[in-house]
Write a structure and sequence with these properties.
The structure is a single chain. By secondary structure, the chain is α/β, with parallel strands linked by helices. It has 10 helices and 9 strands. The strands form 2 sheets. A 7-stranded parallel sheet has the order 3-2-1-4-6-7-9, sandwiched between helices. Strand 2, helix 2 and strand 3 form a beta-alpha-beta unit. It is globular and about 75 Å long. It starts with 9 loop residues before the first strand and ends in a 25-residue tail after the last helix. Bound molecules: NADP nicotinamide-adenine-dinucleotide phosphate.
Length: about 300
Amino acid sequence: MQKHATIFKKVVLVTGCTSGLGKAICESLIRSSRYRVVVTARGRSFMRLAEIFPENDDTLHLPLDVTSESEISNAVNEICRRWGRIDTLINNAGVCFRSVVEHMDANAEDLQMRTNFFGPVNLMKSVLPIMREQRSGHIINISSVSGMVSMPTMASYSASKHALEGVSEALWYECRPYGIQVSIVQPGFINSPSFRNVILSRKARLSYELRGPHSEYYDSMTPFIENLMGYSMSRPEVVAAKILKLLEMKNPPLRIKVTLDAILFGLLRRLIPGFWFHKLMFYFLPRSGQWGNKKWAQEEGPLSPRRKI
Ligand SMILES: NC(=O)c1ccc[n+]([C@@H]2O[C@H](COP(=O)([O-])OP(=O)(O)OC[C@H]3O[C@@H](n4cnc5c(N)ncnc54)[C@H](OP(=O)(O)O)[C@@H]3O)[C@@H](O)[C@H]2O)c1
């Protein structure tokens, strides 16, 4: 009887696979048939995985809330038990709070950082010993243009992506001797309904609804960002195809910009001195000239600075 040699397939673990970019990445990986794909989702959306990705010999569904250390550890153990290795980790799951700095609260900041920063860091820490043993591996962290440029009302999200980029850069040096690659993917605006998933902090929502201080910031920035996403030519599938190419590179770059606007922002950031860059950005943000014109200090509105929220 003829024996078939088992074809080696890299094991790829992806977080946040139920929608947007994570879903598109997993669809591309599964379609290529060259990978073993671990598709994951947090508890409340885990059941949706079965509808999107049929489970088979090369596709494993696992519950994984990136904010839970025990779920991270269970997932990594289960993958090792099943396939004995992890070749690529794609830290994709993320949340985005919209709020001016003054409207952030401890709960919102905590969830933002636990999802976009501490979760990915814990995942990296869990797969690194396995990759070091293999003396190979690739960690791909999905950042954003917000990891290089901060926009008003996106402070907390930007902070989380800047933090993720800082850790990834340090890790790049630490991993080099072990043949482990680290890449930061910087998408700009992606054409997907993901802006509906933006979360307003409690104070931001109140300010927006009750026309409180800073409501004009939300009036300007919310439709601006939605339009940029709506008009973007970069669909999740296009970005996913670029990430698949990154996976196949022998020497992947530390940073990769995967949409046209990200390339443009990167160029502007490099070419224009900071002093002028920020002034120009402020000038081009919609109706920024009207921000702060309301005389909140003299009013007794429900959100005037004299009233506590
Ligand atoms: N969309 C853009 O324009 C854009 C631009 C630049 C960068 N990015 C980055 O790209 C990544 C994907 O974003 P997206 O646009 O595809 O957003 P999305 O459609 O909102 O998808 C986010 C995914 O993350 C999951 N998630 C959220 N919290 C989680 C947690 N605690 N544990 C596990 N999974 C969790 C969500 O699961 P549920 O279904 O359970 O909510 C969802 O599957 C994010 O890191 C984002 O920051 C997006």
